[in-house]
Amino acid sequence: MATSWCLKCIVEEVQGPTQARTRKSRFISGHAHPGSPYVFGLVGVDHDLDFPEPMPVVGISRSASGYCINLVLETMKTYSSEDGLTEEAIVAKLRTCRCHHLFLHASLRNNSSGTCRWGEFGEGGLLWGECSARQFEWFEGNPVNDLLLKVKELYGLDDEVTFRNVTVSSENRPQPLTLGTATQIGAIPTDGIPCLLKVLLPSNCSGLPVLYIRDLLLNPPAYEIASAIQETCKLMSNVTCSIPEFTCVSSAKLVKLLEQREANHIEFCRIKNVLDEILNMYKNSELSEILKLLMDPTWVATGLKIDFETLVSSGIWLFGLFSYKLILLGKKQ
C-alpha cells in the first residue's frame, strides 16, 4: 500500500493444499520503507536484489554560529552533525539529501525580531519555503539527543540502543557550495541546466561513485584530504600493474543483512572480494602507496577512523573467516 511517506510492502506466504490436514503457516517477511528499504527472506535463495540507499532522519536547528543539520541513519546506528551553515547552504543540503523524516527544532522559530513567526521580515524565508513543501514535525530540547530519542520512537528501538557519532570536524574545510552556485553548475538537478556529473563521469558510471563525487563538489574537503585524493588519482593513472575493480558495496545493506542474519553467499562473496582487493593492494608495492593515501579520504566519507595496520590485520582475519564460511555454504549445496 502507498502512503504519503513511503511504499509499504507486507508479504504473506501461505502453505498450499496438502493431503494431510495441517496448520497453515503464515508470516510477514518484511516491512520496507525509505529509512530501511530491505525485504527479508533472501538468505536461503540465490537471489540478489538491489536496494536503494536508506534515507536518513534529518533534524534542523539554529545556534549562535548559524544553522545546524543533524543526520541519523537507523540502519548504521550512526549520526553526524554540521554546524555554522548559512541558510543557502542548508537549503542546498536539503535539496540533495532525500530524508525519511524531517524534524525542525524550536530554535528556528526564534528570530531577531523577537517573535516566533518564522520567516517574518524575510529571515529564514528561503529555508521555510523549502521545509513547508515537505512533511515535517517540530521538536524541542537538545537538538541531537532529543532527535535520537525521536528516531528510537520512530523505529521502535529500545532505549539501550546507542548511536555512533561519525561527525568529521569541519575545521580548515571550505564552506559548502551556495545554493546558487550548486544550481548554476548543475550539481543540483535543475530544469534547463545540464547535469554536471553526466558530463564529468562516463555514461556507465552510476550509484555510489556518483554520490561520492557529488558530495565532494557540494562539500569540498579540507586541503589535506583534497591533496590526498589528487595524489591518489595521479598514482592510479601511472601504475604499470592491473588495478582492482574496487567492488562498490552499500555498507548499509551489508550491515542490515548481516545484523538480521539474512546475508546469503552472494553477499559473503562481495565482502570477500573487497577484502581480497585490499590485501592485494597491500602486497603490491605500487598499489600499497595508493591504499595508504585512501585512508583519510575514506575516514571523511564514512566517519570511521582506522589506522593502516589495523585495516590490514583485520582484513586478513576477516578474509579467512569469510573464505571458511563460503566453503561451508558450498558443502551444504
Automatic annotation (TrEMBL):
Lineage: Eukaryota, Viridiplantae, Streptophyta, Embryophyta, Tracheophyta
Domain of life: Eukaryota
Protein name per Swiss-Prot or TrEMBL: Uncharacterized protein
Source species of the chain: Juglans regia
